[in-house]
Specification:
With about 625 residues, this protein is α+β, with helices and mostly antiparallel strands. Belongs to the peptidase A1 family.
Length: about 625
């Protein structure tokens, strides 16, 4: 969540150690409330973070047990961008009528919470706060022996503290939760937190709250699985470098062929851990003790963390191994002087070609299977130097835990198969996964970064809907995941960058309209023909639109973008000078004729009047003598 990236609840364990110890003592004295009788209401839940014991895991497996298939799933879009915003969000609707919220998807959190209307210490977020009084289906979770109660002993409360020193606390309520119109899962009643206090980055973030997907009875996943409405599994897919968005599925989905799995021990930790045994850089294993990835909580996969964090020995070995493979590049300082980032300049802007410069990294699991990471899975763009990249892998202080954040799984479908206690990885194009899910098609594997000598370099097909006539104007509608005030100073540079990406002159690209919409900005661009021409060929327009759809890459500080749509207009037909000015000529001729007639008429009247005055002579006036004519 901080500028260095999100660090989710792993840091909350030390803060809760005393509470866990007291809870364990109280549980022993009370006869182990974790082993609740079946008659206990399933939504009256303990609120403190606790490790699930073996008996609870076994009982949950028998309860959720057989026939995971055939159940509906909640298919939800992911928004924002991992490195620009520090997180991905999805839209959740709570109450009747529904109140919409943008929630950070976090596999390391166990509570879903939103700001409450009565909150006196909550920041200004993307959407209005939740108003329980406006929901006809809302009910508070009343105080009971299994929860921490408020001061009036009326309602259950919750509290969460995070590693970056932020916290959230409030009361628990129950209401109808819906997952959007595109989800086949019907709205369900669920318990969630209504915040009364936020601190740190939770207070200042743009997103409304957290959607907790971790292991725990308050987790939205555990609640839906306990109701039997979805299978005990969920999947997430984050977009790649410079491309935001993605998809999330709550519930079971068919596993694609070739998915790589690793065991996840639910008894060891409430977090989603994996069995990482080795890391290879350019085909060579790091010279570290394999047990280094098994310290404390082991290797934890956390969707709410931005970067990757390794124990000190593993980080030093990884940094040195990568640096030794990039001799042609120049080592430079990072974009933020507050951090000692390891950055390299001279790699170029094309992400698909980074594998030609940076080495491949492999993660080897305990079962021998190997997940290959492309450079976008351990690098982030330098925000101030074009063509420069920095390591997105850092030392985890003195903590022996290995923490893998979202950067490691960009363009990777990750399936958290809780029922079978394993996590699967499958490389794919996450930015296109949502459309494939909606159409019912299976996701396709990610394209190789190395085309090889046999690659098909033929021109791309024309986008659907492109007309066959010449084009006079292309109008593009784009959404950028940056707020308007932050984007406004960069609009001119963004237009030049867009022109460069489209391989056209900057004078052809103009910003026609800009509208702020929450944490995004909607822009209408007009793309004109080159020079003084009034049209461009169909092939030229086809190339521009294709590059818009597939090749445009924006710097990370400008955010990710989504192409909302485009349309084209025919050119205005070219006419001769006489055709274009015929009306003006006619008006001019008529004006000249009118002035000429007016002048002649005026002269005629004047002369007539003058002659009349010259013929008049008074009686008796002296006139010129007349010469007598001879007889």
């Amino acid at each position: 969540m901080a500028s260095r990236g999100w660090r989710r609840p792993l840091g909350s364990l030390p803060a809760l150690a005393l509470a866990l110890f007291l809870l364990a003592v109280a549980a022993a004295a009370a006869g182990s409330p974790d082993r609740a009788a079946p008659s206990r209401p399933p939504l009256v839940l303990p609120l403190t973070l606790s490790y699930p014991n073996a008996s609870r895991v076994a009982s949950s497996r028998s309860r959720r047990g057989l026939a995971e298939g055939g159940r509906p799933s909640a298919r939800m879009r992911l928004h924002d961008d991992l490195l620009t915003n520090g997180y991905y969000t999805t839209r959740l609707h709570i109450g009747t009528p529904p109140q919409e919220f943008a929630l950070i998807v976090d596999s390391g959190s166990t509570v879903t919470y939103v700001p409450c209307a009565s909150c006196e210490q909550c920041g200004n977020h993307q959407d209005p706060r939740f108003q329980p009084d406006l929901s006809s289906t809302y009910s508070p979770v009343k105080c009971n022996v299994d929860c921490t109660c408020d001061s009036d002993k009326n309602q259950c409360t919750y509290e969460r503290q995070y590693a970056e020193m932020s916290s959230s606390s409030g009361v628990l309520g129950e209401d109808i939760v819906s997952f959007g119109t595109e989800s086949e899962l019907k709205p369900q009643r669920a318990v969630f937190g209504c915040e009364n206090s936020e601190t740190g980055d939770l207070f200042s973030q743009h997103a409304d709250g957290i959607m907790g997907l971790g292991r725990g009875q308050l987790s939205i996943m555990d609640q839906l699985v306990d109701k039997g409405v979805i299978g005990d599994s969920f999947s997430m897919c984050y977009g790649g470098m410079d491309i935001g968005g993605g998809a999330m599925v709550l519930g079971a989905m068919p596993a694609p062929p070739g998915m790589i799995y690793t065991h996840s021990n639910a008894v060891r930790s409430p977090y989603y851990n994996i069995e990482l045994k080795e890391m290879h850089v350019a085909g060579k294993a790091l010279r570290v003790d394999p047990r280094i990835f098994d310290g404390k909580h082991g290797t934890v996969l956390d969707s709410g963390t931005t970067y990757a964090y390794l124990p000190e020995q593993a980080f030093v070995a990884f940094k040195d191994a990568v640096s030794s493979q990039v001799h042609p590049l120049k080592k430079i300082r990072g974009p933020d002087p507050n951090y000692k980032d390891i950055c390299f300049a001279g790699a170029g802007r094309n992400v698909s070609q980074l594998s030609e410069v940076f080495p491949k990294v492999d993660m080897v699991f305990g079962n021998g299977q190997k997940l290959s990471l492309s450079p976008e899975n351990y690098l982030f763009r330098h925000s101030k130097v074009e063509g420069a990249y920095c390591l997105g892998v850092f030392q985890n202080g003195k903590d022996p835990t290995t923490l893998l954040g979202g950067i490691v799984v960009r363009n990777t479908l990750v399936t958290y198969d809780r029922h079978n206690e394993k996590i699967g990885f499958w490389k794919t194009n996450c930015s296109e996964l949502w459309e494939r899910l909606q159409s019912g098609g299976a996701p396709s594997p990610a394209p190789s970064n190395d085309p090889g000598p046999q690659a098909d370099l033929s021109p791309a097909p024309a986008p659907s809907g492109l007309p066959e006539f010449d084009v006079g104007l292309i109008t593009v509608y784009m959404s950028i995941n940056v707020t308007y005030p932050n984007l406004k100073p960069h609009l001119h540079g963004l237009a030049e960058l867009l022109a460069k990406e489209l391989e056209i002159d900057s004078s052809q690209v103009r910003v026609m309209n800009v509208t702020g919409q929450g944490n995004s900005t909607l822009i209408r661009w007009d793309i004109f023909p080159a020079g003084s021409s009034d049209s461009m060929s169909n092939a030229t327009a086809m190339g521009i639109i294709y590059r818009l759809q597939h090749h445009v890459q924006l710097p990370e500080h400008l955010g990710s973008y989504q192409l909302l749509g485009w349309n084209v207009q025919q050119p205005i037909s070219r006419r001769s000078w006489l055709q274009e000015h015929v009306v003006s000529i006619l008006v001019g001729v008529l004006l000249v004729v009118f002035l000429s007639l007016s002048a002649f008429l005026g002269l005629y009247l004047w002369r007539k009047k003058f002659r009349g005055q010259a013929a008049y002579r008074p009686v008796g006036s002296v006139g010129p003598e007349q010469e007598l004519q001879p007889l």
